[in-house]
Amino acid sequence: MARRRKSAFRSRSGRGGGAHSGADFLVNDDDLLRPREVAEMLCVSAATVGALARTGVLKPAARTPGGQRRFRRADVLELHRVSDAPEEQDVVRLYAQGWPIRRVAAEFGLGYGRTRRILLKHAALRARRTYGP
Fold it and tell me: Quick check: helix, strand or coil at residue 66?
C-alpha cells in the first residue's frame, strides 16, 4: 500500500495533523483554497474550476509540489461578486415576469438546478403548473 506524503497544504478541519483546530482557525482573504472548496463556493463542479483556471478567468495563487492548484479566497469572492451579481438579478426579474425556470436557465446558459438555487435564494417559487383533468 502506498504511503501518503504529508503536504504543507492541509485540511482546515483540524484533522490530519494540521497546526490549527477548526475552532481557533481564523478565515481571511489570503487563505488558499482547494479546487473542491472553490467549486462549493461558486456552486459549480471541480472540473469547471479547472476550466476557469486553464482559461485564465481564475488564476491560481500557488501550486503544491504535486502540481495541484490553490486559489486565494479573495480572488474567488471577487469572481463570485463580479460574475453573479447582475446575472442573479436578471434571473429573478425574468422569473417574476412569468418565465418558466427552464426558459430562464436557457436564456443565461445555466443549468436548471443552478437557476432554481438562485431563485430559492432571492424569491419564492411559483407552484408547478398541472396539465390535464
Answer: coil
Gap between the Cα atoms of 101 and 99, Å rounded: 7
Q: What angle do CA 53, 55, 58 make, to 5 degrees?
A: 40
First to last CA, the chain: 62
What is the spatial distance between Cα 80 and Cα 6, in angstroms, rounded to a whole number? 31
- Strand segments, DSSP code E, in the chain are 32-33, 62-63, 69-72
C-alpha 90/C-alpha 28 separation (Å) is 30
Residues in the chain: 133
pTM higher than 0.90: no
Q: What is the pLDDT of residues 37-55, one digit of tens each?
A: 999 988 889 999 999 999 9
Residue whose C-alpha cell reads 408547478 in the numeric block:
128
